[in-house]
Amino acid sequence: MAARITLPGRAEPLEIPPPGWAPGYPPPTTRRVYAAAHVAPVARTSETRASETRGDIIDWEATLAFRDHLWAHGFAVAEAMDTAQRGMGLSWWQARELIASSAERAAARRAAGRFADIACGAGTDHLAAGEAHTIAAIADAYSVQLEFVESAGAGVILMASRALAAAARGPRDYLDVYGALLKQASRPVILHWLGEAFDPALHGYWGGTDFESAAATVLELVDQAGDKVDGVKLSVLDADKEVALRRRLPAGVRLYTGDDFGYADLIRGDNTGHSDALLGAFAAVTAPAAAALHRLDAGDLGGYEAAIGPTVPLSRLIFEEPTYYYKTGVAFLAWLNGFQPRFLMLDGFESKRPAGHLVRVFELAAAAGALTDPDLAVGRMTAFMKEHG
């Protein structure tokens, strides 16, 4: 039976039938896909505020259970990335505990014969913000985090560094820093190219203010790295630029789409190839996206389009400008779907989107089949609207 709710601006109640997705899906075989996961905090009190720097405010039960949910739907987990509010509420010291805990959880699942791939972000965010740092200090900071991620037994995603963006004087600085890190890495890593829409402090990353010059640096790095680069995660929200870069990558190096606007077409691909994926959007549309990828594996393009297509308007809304506030929509849907007890985020980030935006997120999530328990979602949405007038 469909759940019903009256939303502002609608003349008739919205009916939300059960979406009908399977409770889980195997990992895709024709694409490699990561979902970047968020972090759920506990309710704030004077005691948790006082202990915030130790990471005590993370709700570990809810946070780790959400990783189980992603693994159960066939997604590898991209941990401690910007979706987890890295550099926007999540400190490196909290990220260390998050990485260790998630990697331990993944190892336990694998030991039990269940899928649980994980890769974690290594960056430089333990360096003091707002201060100038030498290239050598930045390289050392990266090295410390890379070593920690590998020691936890996880794959490495080399995150973009605000400190490096501020200190670098050209492509050579990027090639030197990343080149040393790739020599240190014990297995292939993912390079994370995060565009300014996601973090304005990364303007001019890779030593060029235009895409072509930045791409030239990345391609030179990949050429020099031999087999140390698994792939490049590109988040510039421009499908044409992504396809152009994908076609220039050497054989065996993946292009992981981070395009939360155009992922459906990019993952499907064309006669020259396809993108794999590392997306925050997949933490918001987990079940329909998993169903779509399952149909794609079976060669059912119609089934793929039917499942993935309705998720795109929802993702575009969640990632609308200012794009870096997209994490609010991811956490809101996790709460609506019962994966955390309260709609709360680190550093009060839940207030970064207005109530009207979140009402629209609910409406498009219903259309996308992204509300896995409509009755629960309606109950929580009703309470949310009452609280926010």
Describe the SSE topology.
Elements: E1 3-5, E2 14-16, E3 33-36, H1 46-50, H2 60-72, E4 76-79, H3 92-111, E5 118-122, H4 135-151, E6 155-158, H5 162-167, H6 171-184, E7 189-194, H7 211-225, E8 229-235, H8 239-248, E9 254-257, H9 263-268, E10 276-279, H10 281-284, H11 286-297, H12 301-308, H13 311-318, H14 326-336, H15 355-368, H16 374-387
Helix pairs in contact: 4-6, 6-7, 11-12, 13-15
Account of the protein in words:
The chain has 389 residues and is of the alpha/beta class. The protein has a domain at 31-301: Alpha-Beta Barrel (TIM Barrel). The chain has 16 helices and ten strands. The protein has helices at residues 46-50, 60-72, 92-111, 135-151, 162-167, 171-184, 211-225, 239-248, 263-268, 281-284, 286-297, 301-308, 311-318, 326-336, 355-368, 374-387; strands at residues 3-5, 14-16, 33-36, 76-79, 118-122, 155-158, 189-194, 229-235, 254-257, 276-279. Strand 7 (189-194), helix 7 (211-225) and strand 8 (229-235) form a beta-alpha-beta unit. Helix 4 runs parallel beside helix 6, helix 11 runs antiparallel to helix 12 (301-308) and helix 13 (311-318) runs antiparallel to helix 15 (355-368). The protein is globular.
Can I get a quick summary?
With 389 residues, the protein is of the alpha/beta class. The protein has helices spanning 46-50, 60-72, 92-111, 135-151, 162-167, 171-184, 211-225, 239-248, 263-268, 281-284, 286-297, 301-308, 311-318, 326-336, 355-368, 374-387, and strands at residues 3-5, 14-16, 33-36, 76-79, 118-122, 155-158, 189-194, 229-235, 254-257, 276-279.
